[in-house]
Amino acid sequence: MIRLRTRILMEAREDHKRKWGLVGFLTLLSRIVGYLRDVVVAALFGAGFQTDAFYVAFRIPNLLRRLFAEGSLAAIFVPIFSEYLESGDRREAKNALRSVFTALLIILVFVVVLGVVFSPWLVKLFAYGFDQKTFDLAVYLNRLIFPYVFFISLTALAMGVLNSVRHFFAPAFSPVLFNLCIIASALFLYRELEVPIVSLCFGILGGGVLQLLLHLFYLREKKFMFGFAKTLNHPAVRKLALLMFPQLFGIAVYNLNILVNTQYASFMSEGTVSYLYFAERIIEFPLGVVAVSLATVMLPALSGHAAREDYGSFGGEYQRSLRRMLFIMVPAMVGIVALRVPLCNFLYQHGQFDYVAVVNTSQAILGYGLGLFAVGGIRITVPAFFALQDTRTPVKVAFFCFLLNAVCGFVLGFVFSLDHFGLALASSISSVVNFVLLVVLLNGRLGHFLSRDILLFSLKILAIAVVMGFAVSAVAGLSPWSETGFSLDKALVMAASVAVGVILYFLLARVVGIKEVEMFSFLKRG
């Protein structure tokens, strides 16, 4: 009996590892295509008033996407839907899905109409410091983009269903379609439109439609297709609303950090909003590949443990995910900080994006990069509270850290005149505090499942990551990083820097006895 249970547990862990590998690979692919998108946008438009207007216009529906989509709806719906699946009542699960879909559809139509009508006020809320030319363009672009909220929110609901039934391909692959659509639209429509940057808006809308269609295909295959309900009075709708309202507030508080930083940036020099955006894109690469993919696979598993009240397995699952996240995110943090100028030069310094923009963007990367491990930790710790159907604790912590970020951003950005670097550094400070508080509270709730081992583990990987960082910087120094355009020399040096960093880090990890090195064994087996 003990052997059977051990075998089942080992098979479950291997399945978890394979699915994380799949999600991580597909997310890596989507991030690579996303960077191709950023390269195209940087080359065509540079970093000026047009890109400032576009990124503010796109931030507004993106904030609502997080409110109604990945940030709350999908995360809250997975534990609720998992309860029906755990009970074996697929018919009731379908009824719950129909009711939630119908309610969401009504809300989204209302939100999109309001968003289009009140775009001028929304843009002022995000960027009051824009001049009239930039402001008018941002309003125009925001009205074009806003229907994207409708498509991506329905996609998020479908994503929650597919993740609950352990299907991860469509949610992880659909961003590839989204980014390809933006790239194609920019390249083919750029010279055909009176306002060239509008081509990006058409790409966003088309990408939103493609993402939804892909998810609908797999929903039909899994026999959980969307449908209309005759009544909205279903327990799942009431429970979703009960859990979602505090979560909406929590996500709103978290995204208020973005609002505050963008508002501060709008009062700084032209291009500041763009510098912060391009820096965020580089920081988001390891977050998407590691933290988001880990959280995606972890949430259904944690929800299952919580539904069975198996909190020992719950704590073990979370701790494994935390160690895996830190094992990759800490060296990623050090590597990105060490290579911030070469990365910006290699990815962005083409066409209208000059070396001054590279330097300013790299400064923002330094500020954001110092808190990368903490943002990754938040991404996997908040879903752990969601799995326990506790949305209040993350809200309280997020609100405190929002206030901290607002104060630090003002002091560092304006009082100490650190500009975009100060805003990015303030975000990192608040993220570190947020992560530490969440881990301490979760540890107390689950009976102190963390030990000194995790602290020793963190110090070990930080030490070997710093050694790796010096080696990476030395290799990168073999090439100048101020010249515009692509060259084979820069490509080879960049590849060598990354290769040396990865190989050295894994060798040192084996030497100091970090067992997480073994989690990549699935790559050897194919």
Distance between the termini: 31 Å
Number of domains: 1
The gyration radius over C-alpha positions equals 23 Å
Helix and strand pattern: HHHHHHHHHHHHHHHHHHHH
Please supply descriptive tags for the structure shown above.
globular, disordered C terminus, 20 helices, 526 residues, 83% helix, mainly alpha
What topology emerges from the helices and strands here?
Blueprint lengths: L1 H44 L3 H20 L1 H18 L2 H28 L1 H8 L5 H14 L2 H17 L4 H21 L8 H24 L13 H32 L5 H36 L3 H28 L1 H9 L6 H15 L2 H16 L4 H24 L3 H27 L6 H25 L11 H24 L9 H5 L1
Structure in words:
The protein has 526 residues and is an all-alpha fold. It has one domain. It is 83% helix and 0% strand. It contains 20 helices and no strands. α2 packs parallel to α11 (272-307) and α14 runs parallel beside α17. The longest helix has 44 residues, at 2-45. It is globular, with a radius of gyration of 23 Å. The protein starts with a helix and ends with a helix.
